[in-house]
């Protein structure tokens, strides 16, 4: 099966004392990261890796699901180092999920998996009606290895820049009609403004 990698290596300074992975929807007893793991497993991703960095106890305190854990002891080198650590684990294609990403439903994620396997591509990701989006991101095993070979201190050691090097045929973007613009879930205000929309799709 294809693996899923949840990236939780950032400091999450803007979310306050509570890590954004620990937030809950109104009336829901499970944390945001528990919901992510459940959706990923429903979509057939296994194993699910959690890669932590700064203050990992804040994330692990609200995790009630069994996952494979990796810790980036060099988180100060930047988010690309956390991504590279996660990509060293899988032996096949992998889905990269930032900890605050809004995941599509499991059937759509299965479609993303099929698309990545059916074509000779490097990456696949969703796109909304405005042309935005980008997460979660499905990576082929070959391109994952290429990302791991990029020096972490290089000027282009960023996922968005590496994606910019791919052609349209190598990086396919699948439309998801229910995808909406909610690029950040950091502050309490951003979370409250998105909560009613999240309940409609989760």
From TrEMBL:
Protein name (Swiss-Prot/TrEMBL): NTP transferase domain-containing protein
PANTHER family: MOLYBDENUM COFACTOR GUANYLYLTRANSFERASE
Biological source species: Acidithiobacillus ferrivorans
Stretches assigned to the MobA-like NTP transferase domain: 4-154
Record flagged with keyword Transferase: yes
GO molecular function terms attached to this record: nucleotidyltransferase activity
Classification via InterPro entries: MobA-like_NTP_Trfase, Nucleotide-diphossugar_trans
Top-rank lineage group of the source organism: Bacteria
Assigned keywords, A-Z: Magnesium, Transferase
Pfam families tied to this protein: NTP_transf_3
């Amino acid at each position: 099966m294809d693996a899923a990698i949840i990236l939780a290596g950032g400091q999450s300074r803007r979310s306050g004392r509570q890590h954004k992975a620990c937030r809950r929807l109104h009336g829901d007893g499970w944390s945001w990261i528990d919901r992510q793991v459940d959706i990923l497993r429903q979509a057939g991703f296994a194993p699910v890796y959690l890669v932590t960095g700064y203050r990992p106890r804040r994330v692990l305190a609200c995790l009630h699901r069994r996952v494979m854990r990796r810790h980036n002891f060099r988180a100060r080198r930047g988010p690309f180092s956390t991504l590279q650590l996660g990509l060293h684990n899988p032996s096949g294609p992998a889905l990269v999920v930032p900890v605050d990403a809004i995941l599509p439903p499991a059937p759509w994620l299965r479609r993303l998996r099929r698309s990545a396997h059916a074509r000779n591509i490097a990456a696949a990701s969703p796109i909304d009606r405005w042309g935005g989006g980008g997460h979660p991101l499905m990576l082929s095993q070959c391109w994952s290895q290429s990302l791991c070979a990029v020096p972490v201190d290089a000027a282009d050691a960023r996922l968005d820049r590496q994606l910019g090097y791919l052609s349209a045929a190598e990086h396919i973007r699948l439309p998801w009609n229910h995808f909406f613009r909610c690029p950040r879930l950091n502050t309490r205000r951003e979370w409250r403004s998105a909560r009613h929309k999240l309940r409609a799709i989760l």
